[in-house]
Known about the structure:
By secondary structure, the protein is an alpha+beta fold. The chain folds into 3 domains: 18-26 and 443-563, Aldehyde Oxidoreductase, domain 4, CATH 3.30.365; 32-135 and 188-237 and 242-268, Aldehyde Oxidoreductase, domain 3 (Alpha-Beta Complex), CATH 3.90.1170; 349-440 and 569-714, Aldehyde oxidase/xanthine dehydrogenase, molybdopterin binding domain (Aldehyde Oxidoreductase, domain 4). Helices cover 25% and strands 24% of the residues. It has a 7-stranded mixed sheet with strand order 3-5-1-12-9-10-11, with helices on both faces. A hairpin with a 2-residue loop joins strand 9 (191-197) and strand 10. The termini are far apart. Dioxothiomolybdenum(VI) ion binds next to loops. The site of dioxothiomolybdenum(VI) ion has 11 residues, from loops. This is Oxidoreductase. It holds the Pfam family MoCoBD_2.
Amino acid sequence: MKTLNETGVGKAIDRVEGHLKVTGMAKYASEFPVENKVYGQGINSTIAKGEILSIDTSEAENLPGVLKVITYKNAEKLKTFEEEMPPLWPDVIAPVLQTNKVHYYGEYVGFVVAETFEIAQHAARLVKFEYKKDHDAAINFEENKSKAYKPTESSDYSRGNIEQGMSEADVKVEETYTTAMEHHHPMELHAVIASWDNGKLTAYSSQQMIDANVTALANTFQIPKENVRIIAAFVGGGFGSKLNIERHVVMASMASQMVRKPVQATVTRQQMFTNTGFRQFNEQKMRIGAKKDGKLTALSHDTISHTSTTQQYQESCGFVSKMLYNVANNSIKHRLIPMNLQTPFAMRAPGEATGSFALECAMDEMAYKLNMDPIEFRVKNDTQTDLSENKPFSSRLFVECLRIGAEKFGWENRKKEPRTNTNGNWLIGHGVSAASRKAPYQKTSAKVIIELAGGEPTATIKMDATDIGTGSYTIIAQTVSEYLGIRVEQVNVEIGDSEFPKTPGSGGSWGAASYCNGARAACENVISELKNKLNLAETEEVSIGDLLKRNDLTKYEATGTAEPSEEFKKHSVFSFGANFTEVWVDKDTGMWKIKRMVNVGSAGKILNPKTAYGQIIGGLTMGAGMVIAEQSKIEPNFGNFITRTLADYHVPVNLDMANIDVIFLPEDDKIANKMGVKGIGELGITSVAASIANAIFNATGKRMRSLPITPEKLI
Ligand code: MOS
């Protein structure tokens, strides 16, 4: 691959869509100037379990400007689940307002459509519901533990014999770790403008995975996929909460059919605590056994979390524990408790972000018990084979991440003994943790149209990709720039429309590798097709402009598809990383702060160091949030979330984040894909919480096994 310009792959260029965003020109879902649009507002239940006995809509309906009040009584019949407790996934149906049953506090029980947003909001409060409340709602995790069951699509796993491995151990760690419920809260609220025209549904909707989401909508309304179009040109953050079709999209679509006008529905910040996914509470029991020399003999990771009473979602907390270390005896279990809360759903690095907290804290505890350096202990148990899959890793710079991070961080100056590094009233601590995240590249198509109208040639690329703030626009433009040999200014990226060629969307850290390889394939096809027409050898170097001219063309288009190779399938493809944190803890008040962090990643070829850096510091910030303050709390009697706004659901701010060093190790993994790219969106949050908790132990001598670590826990 040859870089023909300064804007190609690997260059730290500014975001190509940055200007549109900062000038307010970028259109998010609710900003499309759809004519005649009216406004919908969801109504939330005020009980956690029971049924609706009666509904009085008269006052709302009599309010001037109200067009329709929809409840289960007059709602369109939608496709409903045929099986009990189906898994929640981006392409799964999202029925709503189909029965009088209430499954959790805040569940949608109605939808008001009005001429203005304000009237809709007001009218929503005028609809009166009478409920028959069941008093046995499952809203307390501890009290409902006996109901824990093995999920249908269980990711339980074992190799060797865990009890045998534990009995061979000289030293054991057996501890339980918990992580709090969290909510995603992207800056852009969930929003949709839905409209029907001749049996066809168009939804301007804030979504991450357009093709899967089209499937979900089509199946919910039982119409062909061709009759559904989703447009998500710009998405103001997702973090997993926009992977699937949430119910406001379905209600707005249904309402649009009833009032025969486009309907806009914006989920309020308060509703984002109950009507979109969230990260569930996890209780993780770790059992680790090791020989005196540090060799692991056993590693088991059992998780209990919760799902709703209608659908299953299971975050694979044990995923990291089955592949990160060289241990013969391994056991992973996941159990779910059905609770009267909405179905939890993927939140940035679902499984790894939470699971690595338990694993990497337990590894730190073991290192202390063994009297071994935590880095040496991890290095001793390194493996170049994924033992859970019996496949070699396509590349694994795990030890290098730890070693280079240690050097950059100044690990050798760390004091091993807790409470021995002080500065006045501050206890200073240093912690380390290791990270890994799957790099699941998927089948992706793109179309490229090149044009020559005097001057330099231009290229337009189309794909149904999304940019959830990650920089998809920019890296796709850079890929086209690289492979067509034109400047990035000459590239026009059109994404976020289901009418464009299919991609897997933005999720699971597969976006960058998938989008860019799809774009690459389309560009390569343009060039080889034009060369073929001239009987030119593939190796012949001709500019794209000359290829058009010599073919007597001013415009040419080609599509391309990239998908995982056989080599990819024979390997385990992961990104790896290491986190180092220094904390200062006030020994009297327990107030603590992150003083500095070093993050090292080996994530394949970095497409744009600037956007990649943004991904990692965003991940580090969310990881720090898990430890500093983030927790969604449930009112113990009614079962509603009492954290209702960003004033009481605390997220880290700049002052919390101190100095951050981000290092990408040079890596170009051609087994992963032709461009050598792995994912980074989720690597950045993985194991951050453990490095902070381990630093807090090093500072204070207190093992904090329950997140968040609020100051009162430290005194
Ligand atoms: Mo991610 S949690 O797949 O957006």
